[in-house]
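For reproducibility, we list the full input for the magnesium ion complex.
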Amino acid sequence: MDLVRIATEYYQYFLQGTRTTILVALVTVLLGSVLGCLIALMRLSRVRVLNSFSRLYITVIRGTPMLVQLYIVYYQLDFLPYPDTTVLGVDMERAIPCIIALSINSAAYVAEVIRAGIQAVDIGQTEAARSCGMTAAQAMRYVVMPQAIKNILPAIGNEFVTMVKETAIIQYLGVGDLMYNNGIVINATYNPLPCYYISALIYLALNICLGKGLNIFERRLQRSER
Amino acid sequence: MSGEVLFDVRGLRKSFGALEVLKGISETICRGDVVSIIGPSGSGKSTFIRCLNLLERPTGGQIFFEGQDITAKGFDVNRHRQKVGMVFQQFNLFNNLTVLENVTISQEKVKKTAPAAAEEKALDLLGRVGLADKAAAYPAQLSGGQKQRAAIARALAMEPDVMLFDEPTSALDPEMVGEVLQVIRSLAQDGITMVVVTHEMAFAQKVSSRVLFMDEGQIVEQGSPAQLFEHPENPRTREFLSKVIHVI
Ligand SMILES: Nc1ncnc2c1ncn2[C@@H]1O[C@H](COP(=O)(O)OP(=O)(O)OP(=O)(O)O)[C@@H](O)[C@H]1O
Ligand SMILES: [Mg+2]
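The corresponding predicted structure, in tokenized form, follows.
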């Protein structure tokens, strides 16, 4: 069978690509979450400028294709002195602009998830906290956020899963992710179909593992408080 | 037998957009008063009581609390709210915290009370409202009446000068109304100043020192429970009372 033959012969290409995909997705989700928190805070703030900016940001990012965003970030930021090194087999000069673009994209979705999660907490909780003399920040920290986080985390997990799949586009900038290495194997074997099956299986396995991990995490969270 | 003036409300107005809900309310509430506010739905009772701790921002008039204009610019709202406890119709216990933590959190975070002292005080208050055995429970595990009693303990923990109650028993099943009213009544007997929006006419009659009747954003009539319930002067008061008493 071609699939088994290609998998055994070229497995290091697939593994190397998978590692890059995981690393890029991981860093992207972390950066995207931090940036997303900031955007969400702006979105919820009463300062007009911040609020308008975050709305615009979310509209633009959700209204344009990620591939277009990727190219725009790549060309727009080409003046930045990216380090000419590799980390864990990932070429930083190519990977960093990708991570920036994906993080900017992810942040918009994360921000909406956080906003929705916070707004789903009953306004009475905030009113009660404020009426005890807490500041807005204290009410958010001690009362609203601990409740909102239970709405937010599962949705961020979904965002993580989405990101693992969406990283596939970074092959277009020559980052050696799973799809890029998949292309190399196709060129070597002239047999695309088994290669795509192998990649599909790898993506699927990654996301199933991720989903299981997130489930365990969620259940932990539910148990600690009710 | 009223003490020093706590709230001095002068020409209070509140609009939501084009809708004027409070149309010039003037009233004084003194230390030791137990004031009940009655009136038809939508008359602005909640809005009025929520203005007293600035959960709603007045759009006109002034409110003085212990001599200070709380509607003035730069007034320290958070400090004011420490002195004004609030109990809500929907309880609003902090769902992420245990009953005990509900009562300690603002002591610790707002008043900076040491955790041990805060806990001691909380347990004492929970005992007072009959919930000593529920300290470790989460709000979701409590009945409505228990939630409301915990919420009362939470408000008392800040040692407020006055307690505001907005229909504290309206969300309760009938069999739990009594236990909550009993707690509020015992607070009244301890001399705690309070303002209670209520539909429980018997409670208003028995417990309050003064009753305000509100209709269409104004205090139409006010007086002692005997005066207001037995000899209402205003036709609107009479009409309202005849309705609620017929229902009963
Ligand atoms: N945040 C708000 N925005 C707009 N309108 C509001 C708001 N809060 C209250 N209102 C309106 O103000 C009016 C008075 O409301 P309020 O809640 O003070 O009445 P109430 O006397 O407490 O009635 P109830 O007995 O039903 O609780 C109502 O018409 C209500 O719809
Ligand atoms: Mg009301």
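The first strand of chain A starts at residue 86 and ends at 87. Residues B 45-46, 166-167 surround magnesium ion (ligand 2) (CB under 6 Å). Both points were considered when choosing residues for closer inspection.
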